Write a sequence for this structure.
């Protein structure tokens, strides 16, 4: 083992949740180290990057990091016949240039004083220390608090004996620049359990980039997720006239959909983002929850650090916040029960009625986001910068 460096807070994982939490803590004057096993934050991206209106209203993302606004959602039954088109009078979604966003966020973190250490894996925890393995070999870092921002299969959650995600979807997509084609930017969703069991297959085409993906319960893809994506890609809607390149970027990963975990803190640390299960169980959107929960985490940690009272971390409680997910957990259970194309197709006559369309609009164009946690001394920050 080499030297024993120290930090007050060690954040594991430089996804959106970890970057945001680390920066907020450093801006409050705390010593923070942020590690990620990736050597380059523009690689191994695990998200489509769709930001919903509520996030865009409440947070200021770096200039030039967002694609054109999307106001149209098209819902397709299996077979793609007679889709339901929903148009919103407002801008509903924008797709982030995630590589640019991660780089900007890492730069902002470093400028705020965070020690950003890439190519370094968290491997375990000892008494008041964390074990890391980086280019120089194994190191032990003395730390007062550990923040698990290390994704859906969080090692930190395990080591802190906190709750862990048990219900997971897996998703994969291909991304390519859009050349040709016409029509407004649109989000195409296909409800077909034979290609996306328990969730959706999607094409997001904002006129600049297209994302073609599938997600579902891993053990329910009839011939595996890769084969499902191949089949979907061959017939994906929303790409007429668009040139399909031979080379595409590939993204993918697990998506926790069981709702926010209950036990997400202990006196030694806490979880944020996917590690805390902070993803909408229905839409599988996790970017908005990353930002909101990290703000709450930073506020609670700040108070604990200032007062020297570790017990204050108990205020970071998943049980209270989870109540705001109840409806979405129920709808997820409903979606999980759609096991055959025939059942999915049967929902469409209802979806075509005025009341069916109204329900779909409420889900897709509603103002709901991750429940805003009440943090100590928190006042609403209008359009807080990220970060
Ligand atoms: C295919 C797909 C598409 C999605 N699309 C959307 C979308 O369009 N909109 C939306 O809102 N949500 C979407 N989601 C969900 C959303 O992307 C996630 O909820 C969000 O990105 C989670 O961010 P995070 O920072 O918690 O975790 P992550 O972004 O997963 O970051 C975790 C980080 O921890 C690092 N790490 C893990 N273990 C270790 C370790 N032991 N040591 C060091 N580093 C470690 C990883 O390298 C990674 O950088 C999608 C998810 C998937 C899988």
């Amino acid at each position: 083992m080499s030297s024993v460096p120290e930090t007050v807070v060690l954040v594991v994982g430089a996804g959106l949740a970890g970057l945001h939490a680390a920066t907020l803590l450093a801006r409050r004057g705390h010593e923070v180290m942020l590690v990620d096993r990736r050597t380059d934050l523009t690689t191994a991206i695990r998200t489509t990057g769709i930001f919903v209106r509520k996030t865009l209203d409440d947070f200021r993302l770096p200039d030039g990091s967002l694609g054109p606004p999307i106001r149209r959602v098209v819902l397709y039954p299996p077979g793609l016949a007679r889709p339901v088109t929903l148009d919103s009078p407002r801008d509903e979604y924008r797709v982030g240039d995630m590589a640019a966003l991660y780089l900007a966020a890492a730069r902002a973190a470093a400028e705020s004083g965070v020690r950003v250490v890439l190519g370094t894996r968290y491997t375990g925890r000892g008494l008041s220390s964390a074990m890391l393995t980086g280019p120089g070999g194994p190191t032990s870092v003395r730390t007062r608090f550990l923040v698990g921002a290390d994704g859906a299969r969080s090692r930190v959650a395990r080591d802190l004996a906190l709750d862990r995600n048990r219900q997971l979807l897996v998703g994969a997509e291909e991304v390519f620049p859009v050349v040709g084609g016409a029509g407004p930017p649109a989000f195409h969703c296909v409800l077909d359990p034979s290609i996306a069991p328990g969730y959706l297959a999607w094409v997001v085409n904002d006129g600049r980039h297209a994302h073609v993906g599938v997600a579902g319960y891993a053990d329910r893809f009839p011939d595996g997720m890769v084969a499902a994506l191949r089949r979907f890609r061959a017939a994906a809607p929303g790409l007429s006239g668009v040139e399909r390149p031979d080379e595409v970027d590939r993204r993918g990963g697990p998506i926790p959909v069981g709702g926010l975990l209950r036990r997400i803190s202990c006196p030694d640390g806490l979880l944020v983002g996917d590690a805390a299960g902070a993803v909408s169980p229905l839409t599988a959107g996790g970017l908005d929850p990353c930002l909101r929960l990290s703000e709450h985490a930073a506020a609670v940690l700040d108070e604990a650090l200032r007062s020297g009272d570790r017990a204050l971390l108990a205020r970071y409680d998943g049980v209270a916040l989870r109540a705001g997910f109840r409806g979405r957990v129920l709808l997820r259970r409903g979606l999980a029960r759609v096991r055959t194309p025939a059942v999915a197709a049967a929902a469409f006559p209802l979806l075509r009625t005025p009341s069916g369309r109204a329900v779909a609009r409420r889900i897709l164009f509603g103002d709901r986001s991750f429940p805003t946690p009440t943090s100590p001394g928190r006042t609403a920050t209008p359009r807080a910068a990220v970060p």
